[in-house]
Amino acid sequence: MTAPTLAVGVIGGGRHGAALADHQAPLPDVRIARWAASPGGADVPFVREFAARIQVPFSREWEAVARDPELRAILVLGEAGSATAAAEAALGAGKAVFCAIPAATRMEEMNRLTGAASGGRGVFLAGGTVRLSPGGRAALALIGTDGFGPVHSVFASMRLPIAGNGDRLTSAQRPVLDDAGWDLLDFVAAAVPAQASRVHAHLDALFGSGAMDTAVSIIRFENDVIATIDVARCLPASFGASADGDVEVEVIGGREAVRIEPGATAVRVHAAGTAVRPWIDAPVISMLSELAAAATGGTPAGDRVAEVRRAVELMEAIRAASARPGART
Amino acid sequence: MTTPVKAGLIGCGSIARSAHLPALRTLRDRVTLVAAADLNVDAARAAAGPWGAEAYTDGREVVARPDVEIVVIATPEAAHREWTEAAAAAGKHVFCEKPMASSLDDADAMIAACRGAGVQLMIGHSRRFTRRYMEIWRAIDRGEIGAVRLVRENERRPGARAGAPGYYTGAHWTGDPAVSVGAALTNGIHEADLLRWFVGSEPVAVFAEQKITVEGNRGVPDFVTWTVRFANGALGSSEISNCLPPGYPAFHQFEAYGLRGAIRARDHELVSLTWFREGAAEYPESTHILLHNQTAYVREHAAFLDAVRGGRPLPMSPEEARAALRLALAAVESAQAGRVVLLADESSRAVRA
User: Cβ of B259 under 8 Å from any chain A Cβ?
Assistant: First the structure.
């Protein structure tokens, strides 16, 4: 007798959705049952295509999917800025929810999410692609060991194409902090379990799109760790980076140090042509796996609500710091 | 054939041994060492011996020699002003290791002394003479990436190894709080100079954090990270770490993003051999390549000799070195005060003559 498959609903598309749509059956005991566009509907064309690719029903009604009684788990992907409403609705309906994009970018959103997570029967999970990449996981495991020594510093950088992510994302006009910045802050929040004591930041529009395409910040934490976080949509088309970003992260400890470049883990497939499976492929499968475990009674790793709250606090602090004299031209 | 320029060396420590003396050796048809001084007489003798030069324990004896035409100063930066003023007063041209000084007052005095004496003063910002940075500057100067908007250079160096007097330990002058300001000057002066050079604008705001990470450090910040806002709106940033464990690749990692393109250069990608051992990967040559970029030192000394003997302009004025120092010192001030340091426009300010 085989275990029943878990029916999962997906809300949103984006780069994560593109990676997910490459898999007809990403996990043996998980079935993608419905796929809805993000609240706001900006990603309708892409999500429709993704759903068709894996032959699941597409819906414009994200709330209906979030509350669908057939679904026990909801994976929230898609456009940054749309996640809070989707996650809130699904948590309220008692679902296990994994949020791959910023579950909240403001404390007001975070408080709504916290209320939904604590008031219902749902389980809330979240995590960005850097943290969930094989390198990110290994790094976080390593720095938790005695042999690593005290963490001195964290450096995290992400470079994205100036033009945004082609036909998959609608986020080129969003502040890069609220989008890709989340992936790095999520990793930093997991790597440094402390509050920020001093933050300096530049949020700027440097590359001609008019959007806040650059976010460079230095954070000193109460435990004396210093993090430098540098994210920008600054790559010219000729650079050849994937739309998933060119990422590097270093964590330097008292006795050991670790450097990860998630992009280096991309799978290059040589067939009739040459294709590169996006480096976020593995993190997206990890999200689905964690979601399935939580939905079937497994214990979520760590207090994700608290970690997301800390990442949102860092975002707020960065915004505040960027308004101080000297931060802007 | 012209007679080689006669040089005196003050300070015979690690940078003299690893960089300046080998560079002078390469240029021996154009320059010859006739005198070397160091408080450590053995170091002075080791420097002087191969040249048949005189060894001294007091730099004043080098400066006083009538045959010395140029003085190469390779002491810690706290002593740069003293020896520059002494050399200039004696009519000697001065080549001085970076950073120019440990204060702007000292830098101004050095410029004034050399200008007043009519002698050349060049500060050894060796990275400007490194092939890759020369190529990067030419590409930017040709407009190949458009206006530069975002620049980053990170630097990683391994910590002390057993039996070696590593940077920022008590066994090395960089770790002596009496003479060393820390990573913002010792390493960061390179980044300060490169950011200015590539952005092509003056800094207007600096924020920095620094800390101590090297085991055995006696109180000199060995880690620094900073962001710089330039007058043209561009952003620059650097992070320097000196405590990496053995086996971690040493590198200078540079990236510049412009409105029409990008340039990236990573030293650790030039290291072809990665040695995977149980539990670790090692990059056997990375430190060697990074710290012994001999051709850069040869180029900077050759350029100085061209100015002294050939009447060519210096490739980098002392005012440029002072500007880099100003940026690095602002970073130190920011880190100490925990706030942004705003830099006033100095474009109309004449350096004391």
Answer: yes
Residue A88's alpha-carbon distances to A67, A83, A104, in angstroms, are 11, 8, 10
pLDDT value, residue A167: 43
B147 close contact with A: CB closer than 8 A: no
Phi, psi of B262 (to 5 degrees): -145, 155
Neighbours of B108 (CB within 10 A): 18
Distance of CA A45 to the CA centre of its chain: 21
Please give the structure tokens belonging to residue B300: 């900077």
- Predicted-assembly ipTM surpassing the 0.90 threshold: yes
Among the partner residues B223, B226, B248, nearest to A152 by beta-carbon distance? B223
Strand-pair partners of A281:
none
The band of B162, judged by pLDDT with boundaries at 50, 70 and 90, is low
What is the Cα–Cα distance from A9 to A34, expressed in whole angstroms? 5
A2 Cβ neighbours under 8 A, 6+ residues apart: none
Which pLDDT does position B240 carry in this prediction?
97
Q: A157 with A274: CB under 8 angstroms?
A: no
Q: What are phi and psi of B240, to 5 degrees?
A: -125, 125
In this prediction, residues A239-243 reach a mean pLDDT of 63
What residues does A270 pair with on adjacent strands? A274
Residue numbers in A near B247 (CB within 8 A):
none
Distance from C-alpha of A124 to C-alpha of A304, rounded to nearest angstrom? 7
With H, G, I as helix, E, B as strand and everything else as coil, classify residue B30: coil
* Contact residues on chain B for A163, CB-CB shorter than 8 A: none
Express each pLDDT in A95-141 by its tens digit. Answer: 999 999 888 999 999 999 888 888 777 889 998 889 998 899 999 99
Note which residues in 101-130 of chain B have CB less than 8 A from chain A: none
Looking at the complex, does the CB of residue A276 fall below 8 Å from at least one CB of chain B? no
